Amino acid sequence: MNKRINSLLGASALGVSLLIGAAAWSMGPAGGEDYDPAHKVAHLADRLGLDEDQQNSIEALMTAGQELGSVDRERLKELKESLQAQVEDFDPGATQQLADEIGEITTRLTYQRTSTRAQVHAILTPEQRTQLEALHEQRGERRSKWRQRGDGN
Q1: What residues have CB less than 8 Å from 123, skipping those under 6 apart?
Q2: What is the pTM of this model?
Q3: How far apart are CA 96 and CA 90, in angstroms?
Q4: Fewer beta carbons within 10 angstroms: which end of the chain, N or C?
């Protein structure tokens, strides 16, 4: 019986850790408090040659997306703090409720972010889309190299 309880506790802790990681991923660099849509648009304009109309439309989309997600991101912070408190005084029911709420918020944030990206994609020309895809691939390669260095490789 104790082995089963220990296994369940371990699985719960792992599940919560994965949910927190997913929540952090869904927030991404675009979800942080310091995120500035105008800065991101200026970067894209420089890299992709956006015209003024594209810049204005994309900035409006990104600003709206940031505003929509701000309450959820703040709630995620609160939930993470509550989960940390569970380490000292574990309550399986409370932890499950926290994890479920994190999952719901992560779903909303991920959907919103994907929706915004799709709307931005629709504004771009085919050539700009290709350029943006190349930028994403380069960023992914840099992150992969960075992670490998972090693993001691």
Answers
A1: 54, 57, 58, 61
A2: 0.67
A3: 11
A4: N
